[in-house]
Amino acid sequence: MKIIVFGATGNTGKRVLVQGIKMGHEMTAFVRNSEKLYDQLGEHSAKHVKVIVDDIMDPVSVGEALAHQDAAIIAAGHAGQGEEFVRIVDNIISQCEFQPSFSGRVWIMGGAGLLDIPYTDLIGNNLPGFPPEYRNHNRNFERLQQTQLDWSIMCPGTMIDSREHPDPAHLHVTTETLPIPIPETIKEYSEADIAGYLFSRLQELNVAYDDVAKCMLDHLELGGAFKRKRVGLAYQSNITVC
71-85, 137-151, 157-171, 180-194 — which is least confidently predicted? Predict the structure, then answer.
């Protein structure tokens, strides 16, 4: 497939790029700094990537970069950037909509706080104590719900380097809801107590960057199981979904 990665020098984007090359995809990197990209990839991998150096906020540049691509993975920006992060995502999504030769398959990055909490009508990002900047993911989710594109939102917890999680583990993947077991009694908790309970279990949501990248690359088909879904990941001993 022809895949474009926005934010290809970031922790997630650079892993998507390397794995995509190994899987035989035609990878395009949209970056601000080509030197940084080449330093990260090394000479061998760099030969297998088309590099576009341009302004991610320029609609024309982004639109042209999306031409004839089968999928776009948006790993640019972060929630702490506030309004700029929301504008980055909105610009890329808008150009995905406008570019007639783009297939329509899009992944963007969210966070575990965007997932539904079982037995409640709540998500973590709206609970007291959650960092207010996380609600920028909510805004990006709302933007996606307005489009006809075939999108998915990757919603991991804290992402870690693979060597920090050396033991073999099965990756449990969920759609829409948190990927860890939640007791039904949580529906009786106050919102503050639910927030405290989730904070006490945050470590269970740690997931390696490489596993996040692989899951997105493994689900790039149009109309797949994750179409228009939020996707959660966690390690569990006896469950293999992804």
Answer: 157-171
Q: How many CA atoms lie within 13 A of 217 on its CB side?
A: 27
Pairing of strands 71-74, 170-175: unpaired
- Residue 174's nearest CA partner among 151, 201, 197, 152 is 152
Cα 106 from Cα 118, distance rounded (Å): 26
Give alpha helix (H) positions in 188-227.
Answer: 191-200, 209-217
CA distance 63 to 120: 40
How far, in whole angstroms, is CA 115 from its chain's centroid?
13
Residue 152: its H or E element: strand 150-155
With a threshold of 0.70, does the pTM exceed it?
yes
| Residue 169 three-state SS | coil
